[in-house]
Each structure stands twice: as C-alpha cells, then as structure tokens.
Write a sequence for this structure.
C-alpha cells in the first residue's frame, strides 16, 4: 500500500543535516544561506554537543523547523525524561533508538504526551531509529545478530509502531517491507542520501534522493552532498527536483 502524494510539498520533505561549523556562528550561516530553500534542519550529536540547546532557539527564531537527532538510548526513565525535555524545546521531530526496547519507547510516548498536554505545546513527531545506514549484514553478524539488516529494521519498526511512535528512521532498502507491515501513515525518514549509490564514505546502505522518494520515504536527510557542493543552494534545488520527480513516479 503506497502513501498518497497529493498533499506532499517536495521542499518540506528535505531535511538538511546541520552538523557543521567551527563555531555556532559558522553553523548558523548555513541556516541563513539555505533558509529560502530548506524548511527543516537536523541538529545532531555534533551540533548539540558543541553548541547546546541555544542552537535550537536560534533556528526556531529564524522560523525553521528542527529534527533533533540525538537517538536517545538508555533506561526507560532516563529516555522518557530526555524526551520530555525535547518536547519542551518545541522541536518538529526527534528520535530514540528502537533497540532500547518497547518499554522505553512506550514510556517516551507517555512522557511526551503528558508534557505536551500540561504545557500546551505542539506534538512533535516521535521516531525510532531502526538500523543505522552505516551498518550492513556483516556488521550485524559481528555483533551477534542472527538476521539481516532488513529483517531487524522491520522487527524494530513493528515494535516502535506498537509502542505508539509515529514512524522510524530507516534505510531506503527497508522502506518497502516497513510500509507493507506498518501502513501508509507510518512515517519513514531516510538518511544515507548520496548523489551516487557507490559514494565512498562511512554510509554503506545509501540511495539517491529520487530513489528514496520513489520507494516511499516521507522525508530524506541530506548533509554532505549539499555541504560539499560548489553551489549548495543550487544543489538543494536539484534535490528538490529529484523529490518532485520521485513523487510523480510513485503516484
């Protein structure tokens, strides 16, 4: 079952990974440079560790949405508290790691609903990270898993949905099975976007923007292809066009 694409705005499906800069001013220059082209900026471990919550405040004041990508993974009580804090920051979306287990995710959902209700805040999109795109089947075997990446991603997506989360972060290669199992309204955010699928870096399970959208991604996360481009704004527009083409194909 494929998602309806009639109300999709291609520009709003692109998330720029803001793990850049030698200082917060340098990082924010990317928000200013891309603000007319990108609506959602990902603040990950690099940016958050270096610059703290103030970078979230600055981005919000510039009228942009935030994907807080910290992959919370700890005991249920700790993650629930961190999740409540993320909701209080009024981020657009944030994630936990599905390997933390169903109880962790359930308590996260409950904590977020509680703080949103009590403080009258917007409900963020809660996501679970399934299997990192830097891992392949061989890596899983090395860690003692007796299944392939796709099987594990699907299993974790089902657990996340049962726990009440809105969606997952998953490789393009896992979207088909997740969509069949979890339905058209379950959100899939896809990282590991590259201009070619043979990009020589630490991402092992990659895809082009066009392929990810055709396969059913709701959002794609793009960092290095934009940051390393000679003209980053032009590269963003190229990616938005790929998203548009992908949506047209999957209708």
């Amino acid at each position: 079952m494929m998602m309806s694409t009639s109300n999709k705005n291609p520009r709003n499906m692109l998330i720029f990974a803001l793990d850049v800069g030698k200082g917060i001013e340098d990082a924010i220059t990317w928000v200013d440079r891309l603000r007319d082209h990108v609506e959602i900026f990902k603040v990950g471990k690099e940016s958050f560790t270096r610059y703290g919550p103030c970078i979230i405040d600055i981005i919000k004041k510039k009228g942009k949405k935030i994907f807080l990508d910290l992959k919370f993974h700890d005991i249920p009580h700790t993650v629930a508290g961190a999740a409540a804090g993320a909701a209080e920051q009024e981020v657009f979306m944030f994630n936990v790691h599905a390997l933390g287990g169903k109880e962790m995710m359930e308590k996260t959902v409950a904590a977020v609903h509680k703080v949103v209700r009590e403080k009258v805040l917007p409900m963020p999109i809660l996501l679970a990270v399934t299997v990192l795109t830097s891992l392949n089947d061989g890596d899983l075997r090395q860690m003692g898993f007796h299944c392939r990446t796709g099987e594990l991603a699907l299993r974790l997506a089902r657990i996340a949905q049962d726990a009440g989360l809105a969606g997952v972060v998953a490789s393009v290669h896992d979207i088909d099975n997740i969509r069949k199992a979890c339905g058209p309204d379950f959100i899939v955010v896809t990282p590991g976007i590259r201009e070619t699928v043979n990009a020589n870096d630490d991402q092992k399970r990659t895809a082009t923007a066009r392929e990810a959208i055709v396969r059913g991604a709701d959002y794609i996360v793009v960092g290095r292809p934009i940051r390393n481009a000679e003209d980053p704004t032009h590269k963003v527009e190229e990616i938005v066009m790929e998203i548009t083409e992908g949506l047209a194909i999957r209708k």
Strands lie at 14-17, 40-44, 65-72, 93-97, 125-129, 167-169, 187-190, 219-222. The two ends are 11 Å apart (CA to CA). The chain has one domain: 10-250.
